[in-house]
């Protein structure tokens, strides 16, 4: 009996500079992560390096019962505007994206809006807004409103350093993808969303 081939699903992890994209992918990826890093051009000194082209990691999800597996191809986008040309390249072929927002740095939200608008051009992809570094006084829905995010788009708290937190974000995104386009019988998305994430 031949093995069921893996289904590959491309997901983009987007956000402004230092929002936690590389950390998010490193938290969930199987094995190593391919990174292309350079010295930041803003001179802020908040990070020693920044993503230049992309980060890339894989996450294999075994669906059990002979159903095969789904392999998530996670592409982390550069956050700096000088790498804007990569945004449109990386989103091609993606089924959806995670938009990471640093709640502690409202000064980066304008960049976040530009990134979101760029990725949403043409066919509007399913997305989840994942808010990092939140405080007790912050209202997620107020942040979403400030960013111009539609009310129907899920917005969740995420700690990119925590694998379970990052996986919850991916699960939420897959539920969004499945809601937009119901999977065919035997398709991996529904199985993954209900039981393949542990």
What descriptive keywords fit this protein?
alpha/beta; seven-stranded mixed sheet; globular; 7 strands; 198 residues
What report would you give on this structure?
By secondary structure, the chain is α/β, with parallel strands linked by helices. The protein has one domain (7-181): P-loop containing nucleotide triphosphate hydrolases (Rossmann fold, 3-Layer(aba) Sandwich), CATH 3.40.50. The chain has helices spanning 21-28, 84-91, 109-119, 140-147, 163-180, 188-195; strands at residues 7-15, 34-38, 50-62, 69-76, 96-102, 127-132, 155-157. Strands 2-3-4-1-5-6-7 form a seven-stranded mixed beta sheet, sandwiched between helices. The longest helix has 18 residues, at 163-180.
Q: Which shape, going by the Cα principal axes?
A: globular
Distance between the termini: 27 Å
**Number of helical regions:** 6
Return the string of H and E elements. Answer: EHEEEHEHEHEHH
Helix content: 25-40%
Could you describe the largest sheet, including whether it forms a barrel?
A: 7 strands, mixed
| Class of secondary structure makeup | alpha/beta
CATH topology: Rossmann fold
Q: State mean pLDDT (0 to 100 scale).
A: 78
**Which percent range describes the beta-strand content?**
25-35%
**Could you give me the name of the CATH homologous superfamily?**
P-loop containing nucleotide triphosphate hydrolases
Contiguous low-pLDDT stretches (5 residues minimum) are 182-198
The radius of gyration computed from the alpha-carbon positions, rounded to a whole number of angstroms, is 17 Å
CATH class: Alpha Beta
Which CATH architecture is right?
A: 3-Layer(aba) Sandwich
């Amino acid at each position: 009996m031949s093995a069921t081939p893996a289904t590959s699903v491309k997901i983009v992890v987007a956000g402004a500079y230092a929002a936690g994209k590389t950390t998010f992918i490193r938290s969930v990826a199987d094995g190593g992560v391919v990174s292309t890093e350079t010295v930041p051009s803003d001179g802020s000194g908040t990070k020693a390096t920044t993503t230049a082209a992309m980060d890339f990691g894989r996450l294999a999800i075994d669906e059990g019962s002979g159903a095969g597996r789904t392999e998530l191809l996670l592409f982390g986008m550069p956050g700096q505007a000088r790498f804007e040309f990569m945004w449109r390249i990386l989103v091609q072929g993606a089924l959806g994206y995670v938009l990471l927002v640093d709640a502690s740095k409202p000064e980066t939200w304008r960049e976040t809006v530009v990134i979101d608008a760029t990725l949403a051009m043409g066919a509007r992809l399913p997305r989840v807004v994942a808010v990092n570094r939140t405080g007790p006084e912050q209202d997620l829905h107020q942040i979403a409103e400030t960013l111009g995010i539609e009310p129907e788009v899920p917005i969740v708290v995420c700690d990119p350093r925590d694998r379970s937190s990052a996986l919850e974000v991916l699960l939420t995104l897959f539920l969004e993808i499945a809601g937009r386009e119901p999977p065919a019988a035997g398709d991996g998305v529904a199985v993954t969303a209900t039981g393949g994430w542990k």
